[in-house]
Amino acid sequence: MSATVETLEAMERPPVSMGSRLEGELLEVSMGPQHPSTHGVFRMNVALEGEVVRKLKPVFGYLHRNHEKIGENVSYLGSMPYTDRLDYFCSMTNNWAYALSVEKLAGIEVPERAEYLRVILAELTRLQNHASLLGFLLNDMGAWGTPLMYAFREREKILDLFESLSGSRMMCDYMRFGGCRVDASREWLAYAKKIVDRFPRFVDELEQLIVGNEVVIARTQNVGNVSPELAVSAGITGPMLRACGVNYDVRKVDGYGFYPRFKFRIPLGEHGDTYDRLMMRVLEMGESVGILKQAFEQIPAGPIINPKVKIRAFRPPVGEAYGRIEAPKGELGFYLISDGGTNPYRYRVRPPSFINLTILEDMCLGHTVADVMVILGSIDIVMGEVDR
Amino acid sequence: MESLEEIKARIEAAVPGAKIDIVTNGGPSQQHSLRVDNEHACDVAKWLRDDPALRLDFCSNVTGVDWLDRTVKKTVKVKKVVDGEEKEVNETTEEKIPGHIEAVYHLYSMTHKHGPVIIRIRTSDRVENACLPSLTPIWRSAEFQEREIFDLYGVKFDGHPDLRRILMWDEFEDYPMRKDYREPDDYEYEPTPHDDVLERAKPYYTPRPQIDGAESIVEGSKPT
Questions:
Q1: Quick check: is B199 in a domain?
Q2: B29 in contact with A, Cβ within 8 Å
């Protein structure tokens, strides 16, 4: 799937040993936390030999607010709006992961229409997350502004949908234990369908910008390679894992929600380089559009929330549960322990982008500083989730 | 996937000496877990990863749980001779169960696409011996998550390649996720010379003439 341009590569790629006067001398540079391409407040301590990275230690925690402790001190439902703030690009999937875990903990059934609505909103979230990620990544590569604005134009349409449904563009707070908060009207579904039908045009446009672009190929192919063995061992999930050719998607494996009812394929990469990671996002957007089209056709009428679930004094039975979903950035999990009270005894978030950062150093070694930015961008991190 | 009892039996056959308990989970999720003793945790983890039938190669989630010291009160009826008569008297005994910090690992298999198998290891107490073996050499994904437990719970992981604080800053002293953590009034309090200066200034301070009956603001100097 990735076309290699051998001549360009031979020209552009600096040899690992640069033979510079600085050879053997390491220069330590602190990149960030105010660097524009770190997508938030994220710092890397980089040891450079000339321009080549020899050592890299990520430093974060600038946005740390001890989300887990706060979650232990409020009621179960009280954490729901706060999960929006984890990965503030994908509040819908955060809500779903949390709701799913509490439903596992308390054994709550979800009505059919609510499950369909959840699938629709999660896939819309995936579309807008991947679109804006590709925009940001092209931005990091030097395509200043234009691709990002194309992506934001599409993202804005989806955020308008979220706003008309939940009342908020990004902090949706839409899901509840045992269902969803408000029902989607027929008009909303029709309008959403219209937007989704037009979305492939944008995907094609973006694909054309990326696939054959010489600059993108030179900057991304063979940059930041990850072997499948390392990816599995390091717990990498999401598009980053599938770019290495490992077929693992929680939507297929766990079959949560109503995903087994939909036909979709899992795009897989071959080389595990930055180009494959980019293309994973493009291809996944196509699959998400497919899921959404099926969901719009199949969505039944009916209640959207399980009426048996208590809203006040909601006390799950004593026990623990780990629920996970395939968020746009990877596997998002919530681990909850209940001691029978109204607050969780332990509330743990398994953030995908935090764990995907584990191998940042392995990916960057031997590459230039300019590549670090591209590699970091292709991991798709959001500091609200990394730092919690 | 085979049941936890079968896994337990196979671990005990493969890793001699390992003590494995099944921790049952009464909730509707029915996610039971295996408690492994600290000495054999690495061997058991390695076996779980490499066993061809299980192949738990993906360690999804690593987290700490703090369990405080508990006192369990038990009331037993005892026959006693009181005032020459035999009576049944309620006698309460208090049993102290020491607290511990637990590390919980959620394991899945990417090869066979099954899971989760949950293993737990626990420290012997919460203060001096908050030490656990690190499973980072077996699953790289535990690297940052064990660092997070070290940072927020204060558990030392033996064998971890790079055990530093990860979310809190390096100079921070307490472990904020512990249940008995009290947050400081001022996170950035530093003793300033201001207090010392005030102290030294006191002898030279001439009290203001006070209105009748008002107390002076400086101790020891009474209005004349």
A1: no
A2: yes
Of A338, A354, A358, the CB nearest to B27: A338
Judging contacts by C-beta atoms under 8 Å, the chain A residues touching residue B70 are: none
The closest CB to that of B167, out of A322, A358, A387, belongs to A387
pLDDT digits (tens, 9 = 90+) for A128-167: 999 998 888 888 888 888 888 988 998 999 999 999 998 8
Kindly state whether residue B50 falls inside one of the protein's structural domains: yes
Task: Tell me whether residue B171 is in a domain.
Answer: yes
Distances (CA, A) of A79 to A74, A119, A175, A306: 7, 21, 12, 19
Please report the pLDDT score of residue B62 as a whole number: 92
Round to whole Å and give the CA distance between B119 and B33: 6
Domain that holds residue B50: 4-67+100-186
Nearest CA in chain B to A109: B28
CATH number of the domain to which B181 belongs:
3.30.460.80
CA distances from A87 to A84, A154, A318, B59, B130 (A): 7, 19, 29, 22, 32
B83 in any annotated domain: no
Of all helices (H) and strands (E), which one includes residue A145? none
Six token digits for residue A184: 């989607």
Chain A interface, best mutation among B30, B59, B61, B114, by max A CB count within 10 A:
B61
Residue A338 in contact with partner chain B when CB distance is under 8 A: yes
Q: Using a CB-CB distance cutoff of 8 angstroms, which residues of chain A are in contact with residue B59?
A: 235
Say what the ipTM of the complex is: 0.84
Domains in chain B: how many in total? 1
> Shortest CB distance from B141 goes to which of A106, A235, A322?
A235
- Per residue of chain B (224 residues), give pLDDT as tens: 788 888 888 888 888 888 888 888 888 888 888 888 888 888 888 898 888 888 888 999 999 998 888 777 777 777 777 777 777 778 787 878 788 889 999 999 988 888 788 999 988 888 777 888 998 989 989 999 999 999 998 888 988 888 888 888 887 888 888 888 887 777 776 667 777 787 887 787 776 666 666 555 555 555 44
Least confident among A84-93, A195-204, B119-128, B141-150: B119-128
Q: How far apart are CA A276 and CA A240, in angstroms?
A: 9
Convert B111-149 into a string of H (helix), E (strand) and C (coil). Answer: CCCCCCEEEEEECCCCCCCCEEECCCCCCCCHHHHHHHH
State the smallest CA–CA distance between residue A279 and chain B in angstroms.
22
Chain A contact for B141 (CB, 8 A cutoff):
yes
How far is it, in rounded angstroms, from Cα B71 to Cα B77?
A: 19
Q: Which residues of A touch B23 (CB under 8 A)?
A: none
